[in-house]
């Protein structure tokens, strides 16, 4: 019988097949519906879900206890969110652009040294701790899809500007729909991140002489929140959109990726939980 890591490895392989097929679609100019790619990602997601359940039941907790599990959860959330969006044919091509992220997260999670086991795992057996982690990780997945939609927006905008027939004959969504999808994902993800961060004071308190806002991971997460909140405010108050919005969402996600793993090394609280 396969282990949870082996199931996740199989899921990552399926995401890799999806990536290869996405390159084929790219070379063909995205002139056909992305149903095959959708099915490939659905198959990978099914194996991924099995791996998540196996992991959770084997340790009797939500599988977000270390960097391997957290990355696996973000990957799972991102693929799941895409599969929901992909139910609408006009947005289904998002999967071809998101496949590289799915594969990258899978490979990163499977790297040696990330799957450290907590001897007791009491932290993530706490329901509020699990909710805190789950909300934040799902928001990260949403911000990732925002960046993907923004990349598609920039591609379509460039093709339209150069009067490239690719923008008309391809099945990629029009730029108005891409901007709308990115905007809705942005707001939804920010709400989830806000909910997750709001639980931090309840969880940490004065644990081991530390206060929640003294922890590097929480501080950087608050900076991520401030960056995305600023984008939402600018979009709502000053009609901030177009290429500027797209580049900001891509830049925000790059910043998020850098803080996601890097701050674990500086975090006293999350370092004990995710190491």
Provide a descriptive summary of the structure in words:
The chain is mainly α and 275 residues long. The chain has one domain (4-273). Helix content is 75%, strand content 0%. It has twelve helices and no strands. α3 (67-85) runs antiparallel to α4 (94-109) and α3 (67-85) packs across α6 (127-161). It is globular. The model is unreliable at 265-269 (pLDDT under 50).
Characterize the overall form: globular
Helix/strand-derived category reads mainly alpha
Strand residue content: under 5%
Radius of gyration: 19 Å
The counted number of beta strands is 0
> What is the N-to-C succession of helices and strands?
HHHHHHHHHHHH
Query: Whole-Å distance between the termini?
Result: 28 Å
Largest sheet composition: none
How many domains is the backbone divided into?
Answer: 1
Mean pLDDT across all residues, rounded? 83
| Low-confidence region ranges | 265-269
Number of helices: 12
Residues in helices, as a percent range: over 70%
Note the main attributes of this structure.
mainly alpha; 275 residues
Give a quick precis of the structure.
The chain is an all-alpha fold. 75% of the residues lie in helices and 0% in strands. About 2% of the residues have low confidence.
Which helices and strands appear, and what pairs or packs with what?
Elements: H1 4-27, H2 35-59, H3 67-85, H4 94-109, H5 122-125, H6 127-161, H7 166-169, H8 175-198, H9 200-204, H10 216-237, H11 242-262, H12 268-273
Helix pairs in contact: 1-2, 1-4, 2-3, 3-4, 3-6, 4-6, 6-8, 6-11, 8-10, 10-11
């Amino acid at each position: 019988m396969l282990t949870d890591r082996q199931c996740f490895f199989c899921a990552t392989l399926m995401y890799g097949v999806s990536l290869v097929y996405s390159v084929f679609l790219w070379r063909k100019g995205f002139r056909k519906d992305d149903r095959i790619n959708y099915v490939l990602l659905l198959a990978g997601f099914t194996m991924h879900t099995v791996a998540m359940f196996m992991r959770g039941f084997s340790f009797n907790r939500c599988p977000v206890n270390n960097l391997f599990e957290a990355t696996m959860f973000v990957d799972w959330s991102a693929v799941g969110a895409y599969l929901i969006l992909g139910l609408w044919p006009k947005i289904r091509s998002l999967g071809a652009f998101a496949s590289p992220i799915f594969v990258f997260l899978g490979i990163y999670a499977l790297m040696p040294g990330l799957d450290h086991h907590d001897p007791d795992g009491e932290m993530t057996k706490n329901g509020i701790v699990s909710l805190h982690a789950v909300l934040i990780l799902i928001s990260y997945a949403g911000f990732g899809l925002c960046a993907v939609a923004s990349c598609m927006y920039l591609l379509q905008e460039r093709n339209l500007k150069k009067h490239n027939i690719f923008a008309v004959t391809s099945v990629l969504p029009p730029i108005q729909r891409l901007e709308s999808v990115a905007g809705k994902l942005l707001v939804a993800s920010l709400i989830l991140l806000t909910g997750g961060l709001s639980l931090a004071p309840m969880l940490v308190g004065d644990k081991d002489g530390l206060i929640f806002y003294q922890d590097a991971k929480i501080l950087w997460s608050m900076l991520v929140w401030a960056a995305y909140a600023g984008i939402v405010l600018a979009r709502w108050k000053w009609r901030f959109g177009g290429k500027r919005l797209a580049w900001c969402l891509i830049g925000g996600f790059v910043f998020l990726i850098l803080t996601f793993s890097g701050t674990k090394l500086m975090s006293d609280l999350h370092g004990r939980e995710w190491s």
